[in-house]
Amino acid sequence: MAIRSKTFCESYHEDIKLLDTIWSKCWMGLFVVGLLFLPYISDSYIVYMVNLSCIAVVASVGLNILTGLTGQISLGHAAFLAIGAYTAAILGEGLGMPFWITLPAGGLVSAAAGILVGIPCLRLKGLYLAMATMSFGVMVEYVLITWGSLTGGERGMYMPEVTVLGHTLDTDESMYYFLLCIATLMIIAAKNIVRTRVGRAFIAVRDRDIAAEVMGVNLTGYKVMAFALSSFYAGVAGGMYAYVMGHIHPEHFTLMSSVEYMAMIVIGGLGSILGSIFGAIFIVVVPEGIKLLAQGIESVIPAMQGRYDEEWNIAVFGLLIMLFLIFEPGGLNAIWQRIKTGFKNWPFTY
Amino acid sequence: MYFLELLVSGIAVGSLYALIAMGFVLIYKGTGVINFAQGEVIMVAAFIAYYLVRFGVPFWLAVPLTLVASALLGGLTERLVIRPLLGEPVFSVVMITIGLSIFLRSMAGIIFGHHNYVFPSPFPVEPLHVGGIVLSHNHLWSMIISFSLMLLFFFFFKFSRLGLGMRATANDQDTATLMGINIKRVYALTWGISFVVAGLAGVGLANVMVLNVGLAFVAISAFPAVILGGLESIPGAIIGGLTIGILENMAGGYLDQLVGGGIKDVTPFAVLFLVLMIKPYGLFGTKEVERV
Q1: Which residue ranges form the domains of chain B, and what is each CATH number?
Q2: What is the ipTM of this complex?
Q3: What is the pTM of this model?
């Protein structure tokens, strides 16, 4: 029997499998079990961080479909989250609907908005598109503040707690399973979109749109589809956000948060679902890390006491974007792939 | 009369927008990217000028010193942040300027704090009265500066060797390199010049607005002006700036009562969105010809 030093694929079907080897299945299984038992082995602070990460993951996967895969730069992602969150809040709080209506409804309304924005944006490319989506974001923010009768204006809106089969999910731990389920579903869906015709068409549009059109990719259709999908993800993430926070306000969905989602996919890795997961977790966790670090420094050097404020988080956040772009343009995903290949091919380095 | 007053103050605000927009256009013309950190440069320059004046430097000397400092900051930015990305896709460069803007803004917040400063204006407080219309000295000066800069840059890009080199670099980096243009030098100079213009805008803005870290957000309001005029047209920046300034004031003057406040800030973006739908490359931008 010949020793196989690498995994060889003998058919296309094998090449695009989600879990290719027995080992990746084992690791994935372990990972899932670990996630299931996480609330039992860690404190509720970590669970809360994971909850926030789940929301960020769904949102950044959505943005990565539009920007990373299809190459359409969007600086208005927070606006789509806002539309989803407010739709969910209006249906949930105003009409008392359950989550399995409000979340998809938030996604669908947001997707409709995405199509509305996407169609006129078809002629725009690159920076002009970034500007158009940015101004859409600004307009949505304005509407949220001004249209007080629907959105509560400056007061924001409240959101009821999730009820699943008669149980109210009022703790972080119970929300954890709820959010984890949704995030997993959305990630698997995204993975499947990427590896099928739609995903390949998206990539073709990104790499050379004219060539893609010549080869029979319906440019209009796929661009609009990318907008719709991305804003659907954003809308669902917005609904999740509303449920976790219990209160939403126009200030949660500003240009800065759009930039934050952009940073997630840049730091995580453009065009990769795994990358958007890494990036989302990274952006959620880093500010907390800095806070802990600052507290640590304060306890060691008393002179530093009271010097920390939120501003440092933001500064580090900006610095990280720059450092990643300069030193690791492939993002966290590239680092991960390097480590993985290193282990796979050990002891051979190629 | 109310209309005329709105018009004049619109032109006054618009000329400041035009000055900011010109900074954007210069970088786009030279390197093909939008610098999202332009607003932060404006703010930093305004603070430099403020501290120079406060430490006893006379205003006429403080302005050139500020401009020199801005040019240095531009060169430094280019060297540390932009040059490593030479040849990378535009998206990365834009993203890095966004990162830079966040970084500069929060550092400024840490250093200068978030309270308002009052810039010691060198101009008389008493505004000019021209035929019954009130116009402040500061706005008059920013108009004069905008228009003279426009003429200067128009000739610079049309006739000077360096200006042509910058346009060539923006058009096609690889070909420009092949033609013997030193694109590293072009990049450094472009960022330097653009930051000088931003510095001028900063001094101008600090005179009319309150000086605080939020000054950086003015640049975001100037985006519509840049896009409206077309990303690479200097006259477009002026016309776009003036148009947005006037529209903003008109909307504020006539529509605010109808919708209940805030329409002034959102009008430029609505205009921007509409303009992009009809003319995807702005009023004077060149349409990109694509080859596969």
Answers
A1: 2-122+134-278 (1.10.3470)
A2: 0.82
A3: 0.86
